[in-house]
């Protein structure tokens, strides 16, 4: 409830009991006519023991029922498994798998948008087929890693004074793709 109030920029007493925070969130949702609560990376919120997970799932059920709020949650497979462990939750949430990005018009549009949002002084042409392919291969086609790769490349482009992301820079960038991160984790 604290995170919800933080995102709504609502004042609250951090030491207040959970039921008071819940009442405040419910009241705020009513006042603001909130219809949908979107929770990104829900797998971070359900981390912890089974008791904490159950408390969190119950909180979502209460918000959904009493505040009449639809809940959209996104996360990785562990989140799906935690929700699926509760029969009521598995009937409330319909899982939809997000497909990986592939080179084409949609990825080009995403990359063009990302490029416009970087503070680079020179155009990089991230949407061009060869740049799109380089980003696709390095990021392994996951949205979060596409964002991270472009951000890291933009920072490096600014540091180097080039003010544009290049194919060569992408190839030489000190950036670890997702599959290698999993390998590193196992080696540690």
UniProtKB/TrEMBL annotation:
Name the Pfam families for this protein. Answer: TniB
Q: Please name the InterPro entries in this protein's record.
A: P-loop_NTPase, TniB
**What's the superkingdom here?**
Bacteria
Q: Mind telling me what this protein is named?
A: TniB family NTP-binding protein
Q: Which organism is it from?
A: Ralstonia pickettii (Burkholderia pickettii)
